[in-house]
Design a protein that fits this description.
Elements (H helix, E strand, L loop, with lengths): L24 H4 L8 H12 L3 H14 L7 H22 L17 E5 L6 H8 L17 E7 L2 E7 L10 H9 L2 E7 L4 H14 L2 E3 L13 E3 L1 E6 L7 H11 L5 E3 L8 H11 L2 E6 L12 E4 L4 H8 L1 H6 L2 E5 L7 E3 L10 E5 L1
Parallel strand pairs: 1-3, 1-4, 4-7, 5-6, 7-8, 9-13
Antiparallel strand pairs: 2-3, 9-10, 11-12, 11-13
Helix pairs in contact: 2-3, 3-4
């Protein structure tokens, strides 16, 4: 069946969300079984709390009393959602005019990449496998309630990955959408084993409702005013071995389109090194190495430039004196013979070695 291309709703206005009333958790969520007496006592204290700090403390206490099993997943998710909202609001007030929230991160490294997608697709597991971050990883949904940054090393440079809460129509934090708008690249993760087509379509539709559209769909977006276009890479997770390749092929056929996409596995590490290189390409950055005349090149600390940058841009990265006094450069790399003499307007390629002469 032709599902049609995802993301057609890019021109729609932002969706509004009404705040939930301060009812007890048992009134908002169907009460699971096997809740201990401590839960009901903490629930009473939560309903009686008046300040945000008291409510936060009571919610954390509530979460600590709930046994972890399938019957309590929905209740735990609801409490974590409310706890996240309260903490974000408290942090916003703390920052006074700055309006810094749990979703504000200064950009670090060569680019800021947000890892997004629905619940339980393996976003946190991917971030753990690729970075030094340690978000909670579990086999039940809604374990990530605050974004968690980590640094991913690729060929001597660092790229910032941010694990994010799941995108769900039940609740979307507005600050999460602002984080996505500020980022340089979206990694949209889907579960290859659980209707990845629907997951992709739903996620792209939710982004579109908040006027965020993948660059891949730019030409289909009729109304572009106020729309943020972001580069995207779709990661089909849980492609653990060659036996899962057939599932990936079926996924691609059902989409009927050539999305920028890669099959990966957070569990086995399959294609993760390749994914790193694709991220560098999608960020449109290149790594260039410097060489002092008469010495070997320094391959441990590349300079990061944008695609299309020239020898002159590299000279500016090294020192402003090089820009003013640069006479020529020698380049080893793509499209040149070893040590070729070039001018300051020579366009560099990823992996080039450059020797500057002043």
């Amino acid at each position: 069946m032709d599902r049609g291309p995802p993301g057609r709703r890019c021109g729609q206005a932002d969706v509004g969300f009404c705040p939930r009333s301060e009812k007890s958790a048992s009134e908002q969520v169907a009460m699971p079984t096997n809740l201990p007496p401590e839960y009901f006592e903490a629930d009473k204290r939560y309903r009686a709390a008046s300040s945000p700090s008291e409510k936060i403390a009571c919610l954390e206490e509530l979460l600590g009393t709930i046994p972890k099993h399938k019957g309590t997943d929905k209740l735990r998710a609801d409490l974590r959602r409310r706890l996240s909202k309260l903490k974000s609001a408290a942090q916003t007030k703390k920052g006074a005019g700055k309006r810094e929230t749990a979703y504000h991160f200064d950009k670090e490294g060569a680019g800021q990449v947000v890892v997004i997608g629905p619940a339980n697709v393996g976003k946190s597991a991917l971030v753990v496998a690729l970075t030094n971050a340690s978000p909670e990883v579990a086999d039940f949904p809604f374990t990530t309630w605050n974004p968690t940054p980590g640094m991913m090393e690729v060929g001597g440079i660092q790229i910032q990955l941010i694990d994010t809460p799941p995108l769900s129509r039940d609740f979307i934090e507005p600050d999460l959408m602002d984080l996505i708008r500020r980022s340089d690249l979206m990694l949209l993760v889907v579960d290859l084993l659980t209707d990845p087509v629907q997951q992709l379509e739903d996620t792209v539709a939710m982004l579109g409702e908040h006027r965020i559209v993948p660059c891949y769909l730019r030409e289909r977006c009729v109304e572009r005013q106020g729309v943020t276009f972001k580069p995207i890479l779709v990661l089909a997770n849980k492609c653990d071995d060659a036996g899962a390749d057939e599932n990936y092929e079926i996924f691609c056929e059902l989409l009927g389109e050539d999305w920028p996409m890669l099959a990966v596995s957070a569990t086995t590490g399959r294609n993760l090194e390749r994914m790193k290189q694709v991220v560098v390409q999608r960020l449109e950055i290149i790594r260039v190495y410097s060489k002092i005349p008469g010495q070997e090149p320094d391959l441990s600390r590349p300079f990061v430039l944008k695609q299309g940058d020239t020898v002159e841009e590299l000279a500016g990265k090294v020192h402003q004196d090089f820009v003013r006094n640069l006479k020529l450069a020698r380049v080893w790399g793509e499209g040149v013979f070893d040590g070729q003499l070039v001018g300051r307007d020579h366009v560099l390629s990823d992996g080039d070695v450059v020797e500057l002469h002043i």
